Amino acid sequence: MTDLQKTIAKDLLSIKAVFFRPEEPFIWASGIKSPVYCDNRLTLSAPKVREDVENGLAQLIREHYPQAEALMGTSTAGIAHAAITAHLMGLPMGYVRAGAKDHGRKTQIEGRLEPGQKVVVVEDLISTGGSVIEVVEILREAGAEVLGIVSIFTYGMQKGLDRLAAAQVENHSLTGFDVIAQIAAEENYIRPEDVARLIAFRNNPSDESWIGR
Questions:
Q1: What is the distance between the alpha carbons of residues 99 and 88, in angstroms, rounded to a whole number?
Q2: pLDDT per residue over 79-137, tens digit each?
Q3: CA 204 to CA 199: how far, in whole Å?
Q4: Distance CA 158, CA 44 (A)
Q5: Which of 44, 184, 194, 198 is surrounded by the fewest CB atoms within 10 Å?
Q6: Cα separation of the two ends of the chain
């Protein structure tokens, strides 16, 4: 566990951007029962946390993608983080819309993207990886060289890891599910015995046996 992972985990827990409730699971749109609720948009409303997040994203980009020439946010959650981080780094920024516009130039990529430009995708949360990989493919089709992804939080679900590997794109997150579960136990957000239940959920979200433990 790095200092950055620990700091961001504490930040997200403190503002309930990541909120654990193993005794009263949340229901996802898919119907899956989950012990965790994630809303990293809340970081935008917390200046100190926001500062940690944007500086952290800039740190990841400098460390893993030093040749980055532009940042591209995912719509909509990644847009603000891409904009702020790009400002800190003095880089161009754009974003990829969820769908192409039905008017004007009917573009799906907003902002200037030059052919061959080396870009990093900025995402807030990665679970199964489907949406962010779609963004990567759109950018590639437009001629960008996608160096990789940076994100605030990742579940580390196997389906997401497999999809990223298949798409030949790497992701670096500020913190992850295992780290934040451990910090949650240390900081008394959850009981220490709940950590194993949380990991069981992450490893197999469709298996609800963790609920009765």
A1: 28
A2: 999 999 999 999 999 999 986 544 445 579 999 999 999 999 999 999 989 999 999 99
A3: 9
A4: 29
A5: 44
A6: 27
